[in-house]
Amino acid sequence: QVWQIRLDMHLLNHDGNITDAASIAGIVALCHFRRPDVSVQGEEVTVYTPEERDPVPLSIHHMPICVSFAFFHQGTYLLVDPTEREERVMHGLLVIAMNKHEEICTIQTSGVVMLLPDQILRCSKITAVKVAEITELIQKALENDQKARKEGGKFGFAESIPNQRITAFKMESAAVDTNDVEQQAGEIIAKADPPSEVFTNPVLHTPGTAQIGEGVESSWGDLEESEKEEAAEEEGESEAAAFECEKVKTEDTSTLRETNGDEPIVLSDSEEEEVVILKPQELPRKTR
Amino acid sequence: VCPGDTSVLAGVYGPAEAKISKELPDRAALEVLLRPKVGLPGVLERSREQLLRQTCEAVVLGVLHPRTAVSLVLQVLSDAGSLLSCCLNAACMALLDAGLPLTALFCGVTCTLQPDGAILLDPTARQEQEARATLTFAIASTGRKVLMSTTKGSCSVEEMQHCLATAQRAADTIFQFYRDSVSRRYSK
Predict the structure, then answer these.
(1) Domain boundaries of chain A, sorted by first residue
(2) Fewer C-beta neighbours within 10 Å, C or N terminus of chain A?
(3) According to the UniProt entry, which residue ranges have a biased composition of type Basic and acidic residues (chain A) (predicted)?
(4) What is the ipTM of this complex?
(5) Which pLDDT belongs to residue A281?
(6) Do A157 and B77 touch (CB under 8 A)?
(7) How many domains does chain B have?
(8) Residue in B with minimal Cα distance to A201
């Protein structure tokens, strides 16, 4: 049995160089993540919940960060970290992934540019400098977050959105005046008609499955409908059945049959032109 | 522990050309996509998308743009309770910002009924879990009418009316926030 780790990345805004941004986001997310603690004794495996034992971080050996370079005119011009416009018109792209120990993890070129070895060496030197800065920023951010969590301050995505920018707005929790609410609600209740039917509470069989009312044994092949308990069994749909028949899909729970046997039943989407109600009370079958 | 607040990023695209299979001859076809923070969109997201879609269809003047498609994409950035009402608010602001013709603005308010009978507005995730019932309402700006309501749990009719009235009060604050945001955004 192994752990499966899933990394979901959501691109919020694309203004160029998503490779770099995604690589930073990914590695930081993995460093930040905490998995439940596990203890293995022979064949027995116990997984502790976050309440029982503090979750442990993943073992990250090193942090590879991508840096992209855009080339123009056969390598004459070089741009680090291109924006979207620059990406669209670039001739060649070089991506180098490196960690802070200056080990190259990934190197990839694409485009119509032929690069000389010393150009690539130069790029890798630039990458080393960039990666060192970025790794330091990451470490600081992770430390800040850990401190905030320990001291009970606010943390998370919403806190990191800067407040001063024009497009970001925050409102502190506001008090709502609820003085007249009771009175207003009371007036509405008094004016409204009382609910026409009382529905029985749903019966919970298992988590996720509930039953309202009791099922009726199907009388396929049965010519006589036994006039059973009608009022005692209601479903929420019984009222709706009278008005919006198209909502009621009769599979097995014959909701249609539960309306009071004596009233004429209006089946608005019945496929028959003429609805003949036989005696005793045989409902025309829906051919669905 | 104080987790981050609920945040949803909303984007509106349109009215743009619609696929022939999706276009409606007399109005704009509105489509809502809700992306959860973790994992792929599932059944819960689909049902929320439909709720949002019905609400937006009620306010967007689709008849002004027939045979077009309006796409509303919502990305959940963080969830600390009251997610559906946050999505509703984000959707309305996105529609407003995109300049789509609307008959009214709407806002989302979540209400929970605690076991002791107290009504809490905009609950946190923990309060939602402990609650007896969670109700979310979409309230229009004209006359504070109810556009959409969805309930999780059970409550009596009186309690629901009570929650609704409280939510309508809260809507005032939210609409004021809309006004402030928009005036700030366009004041430059």
Answers:
(1) 18-154
(2) N
(3) 244-255
(4) 0.71
(5) 47
(6) yes
(7) 1
(8) B154
Mutate: best of B9, B107, B175, B181, partner A, most A CBs <10 A: B181
Distances (CA, A) of A51 to A54, B130, B149, B187: 7, 18, 35, 49
pTM, two decimal places: 0.69
What's the CATH fold of domain A18-154?
Ribosomal Protein S5; domain 2 (3.30.230)
> Each residue of B74-97: pLDDT tens digit?
999 888 888 999 999 999 999 999
In a domain, B1, yes or no: no
Q: What are the pLDDT digits (tens) for A152-195?
A: 766 666 556 555 444 555 555 555 555 555 666 666 665 555 55
**pLDDT, mean of residues A84-102:** 93
* pLDDT above 90: percentage of residues in chain A: 32
CATH number for B134: 3.30.230.70
Q: Encoding tokens for residue A181?
A: 């609410």
Mutation site, A176, A177, A184, A199, interface B, largest B CB count within 10 A = A176
Distance from CA of B70 to the nearest CA of A (A): 19
